[in-house]
Every structure is written in C-alpha cells, then in structure tokens.
Design goal:
Elements: H1 2-10, H2 21-50, H3 55-90, H4 106-114
Helix pairs in contact: 2-3
Keywords: Membrane, Transmembrane, Transmembrane helix
Transmembrane segments: 27-48, 60-81, 93-115
Length: 128
C-alpha cells in the first residue's frame, strides 16, 4: 500500500493520466481509515470529558482530532480531486460527472461511476 500512497502524492497535479479501480479504492480506504481513527479519538475525548470529568484531556483529544481532520481534508482535497479525475479518465467518463455531487443521490451515482471497470479491462462487460 505504501507504493500506492507514494504515487498518490507524486501525481498530485496529474489530471490527464489514468488510475485503476484498485489503486483508487486503496487510496480511499487509507483516507477512510484516517478519518475513522480521528473519529474514535474525538469520541474518546467526549467520553473522557462528559463521563469521567477529565476536561483537559477530553478537550485536548476533541480539539486535536477536529484540527487534524480539517488539516487532513484541506491538504488532501486537491490530490483527491485529481485522482478522482484520473479514475474517471480510466473508466472513459467525463470529469463533468463530479457535478452530480449537487444532485439528490448524486454521491451514490458518482461512487457507481468510480467503481466502473477500466475501458480496456477484460472484466469490462460494457465494452463487449
């Protein structure tokens, strides 16, 4: 997984390349894992603050997880957009699909398109 994540950062400005389904979802799994860890840190902070009266430790965990989440989101926003664009290129789709995010059920439609196989993939039943 380290090689995939290194390529993610090296191709930070590559919007014309391609990205396989496997590589894309590995990156998204890494990001999801980071946010789950930060959520648990936030939850533990709330638990410590509310139930056990450890205000300083709880506040530290709560504020720290919020700040790290915001920083992580801002730092990875552009690379996530570029890898998503590369994934859509690989599936033979237009980047305009990203605007579906503003429609009802749009995120589910985008996820469907991001999971479509590569244009020249032997498992791509759409091209046969």
């Amino acid at each position: 997984m380290n090689n995939v994540y290194i390529r993610f950062w090296k191709k930070i400005n590559d919007i014309h390349g391609k990205c396989s389904v496997k590589e894309y979802w590995k990156i998204m799994f890494i990001h999801l894992s980071i946010y789950i860890i930060l959520f648990f840190s936030f939850s533990i902070g709330m638990l410590l603050k509310v139930n056990y009266g450890l205000d300083k430790m709880g506040s530290f965990l709560i504020e720290g997880s919020i700040i790290i989440s915001i920083i992580n989101f801002l730092v990875t926003l552009w690379p996530n957009l570029t890898i998503t664009k590369r994934r859509l290129n690989d599936a033979g789709l237009s980047w305009v699909i990203l605007f579906f995010i503003f429609l009802p059920f749009g995120p589910m439609i985008i996820i469907y398109f991001l999971a479509t196989p590569t244009e020249n993939d032997e498992w791509n039943f759409y091209s046969k």
